[in-house]
Amino acid sequence: MSVTQPARKPRGRQFFANPGPTNIPDSVLLATAHQTVDFNDPNFIEVYDACVAGLKRVLKTTQGLFLYTGSGHAAWEASLVNLLSPGDRILILESGYFSISWANMAKDLGIEVQSVAADWRRGVDMAAVRAALAADTAHGIKALCVVHNETATGMMIPIPEVRAALDATGHPALLLADTISSLGSLDFRMDEWGVDACVGGSQKGLMLPTGMSFTGVSAKAMEAHKTSRLPKHYFNWTNMLARPHRSFVGTVPVSFFYGLQQSLRLIEQEEGLENVFARHTRLGRAVRAAVQHWSGNDGPQLFCLNPGRYSDSVTAILMPEGLNADALRSVALQRFNLSLGGGLGPLGGKVFRIGHLGDLNEPMILGTLATVELAMKVAGVPHAPGGVAAAIDALA
């Protein structure tokens, strides 16, 4: 009589290559395990104020900042309800799953949404953006929303070009930017680029657990807030300004700030913010070199076809026709303990994603790429072997 053996769990530490949440450094994990303290204690206030100042440095802003207990979606909603009124119209630049999600949230809140459609593999045409703005002679568009780095498609949208489109047409719309998968990984300059509200989250480039988000807010946006009429309470910036922390209507998540204090130390002091950007550029280039090599023999290929918009924090990889990306991800996870990101929305089963942001270095990326190549071989996915060597050449 045969006995069915349970599935073998791979040994060793999991290689985690999802684009968010991301790997958390041990020192940050230990810092978040801080004992509970009173969030009004003067000693904690010092930590809190230092973290707010550090976040502003990463955002490259001297303007306002509001924080929330909630994921990046919470900051999306906070930005919309604090700046707009029922029936207001916004312009959203299509870039992938998350731009569509932001648009759907706005519709649910009673906001009229106008989109600039785009090929998800190439990105929005800035001429079409200028045309949409120029056509709005009555300035009915109150805000323009753009996802700086579209996690679903591995595409970066250059915000200075969006700002230039607004300026060239003389359009007064607020510029809202989602930096969730770019902040702390790609260069972002809120004040220099004229961004009025930027949305960020804890779980990606800041290398923290999921659950805290924030919005950087310009003086122009604060003026718009004074007349906004969408319902809000927990997210109400006016309510927050009346509190000692000028954020959080309710309990402050103190443990996040001890972790954030450590994360900012790693980013600013141990490595340096510009060096962080350079590291992400190196790792992104290596991943793309591997994928471009694998594309031989009718293998997987880069989803993004616009080299000027490649993301340095996540790469989306399109499977050969007729092959399922989730089946490959399952082999990678179940056989080799490598966790890869899946396709989102209409890209489900067609795309897998490699996150290369946050707490990562060259050996971790090379190990990930080697295991992806191994999983492709086991799963029978056609590809040109040698992608890891191409990545090494890119890194060297």
From TrEMBL:
SUPFAM superfamilies from the UniProt entry: PLP-dependent transferases (SSF53383)
N6-(pyridoxal phosphate)lysine modified-residue sites: 204
Transferase found in the keyword field: yes
Binding site for substrate: 353
Cofactor(s) needed: pyridoxal 5'-phosphate
Domain of life: Bacteria
One of the record's GO molecular function terms: L-serine-pyruvate transaminase activity
Any GO BP annotation: glycine biosynthetic process, by transamination of glyoxylate
InterPro entries according to UniProt: Aminotrans_V_dom (IPR000192), PyrdxlP-dep_Trfase (IPR015424), PyrdxlP-dep_Trfase_major (IPR015421), PyrdxlP-dep_Trfase_small (IPR015422), SP_NH2Trfase/AEP_transaminase (IPR024169)
Pfam families (UniProt xref): Aminotran_5 (PF00266)
Region of interest: Disordered: 1-20
Name the record gives this protein: Aminotransferase class V-fold PLP-dependent enzyme
Higher taxonomy: Bacteria, Pseudomonadati, Pseudomonadota, Alphaproteobacteria, Acetobacterales
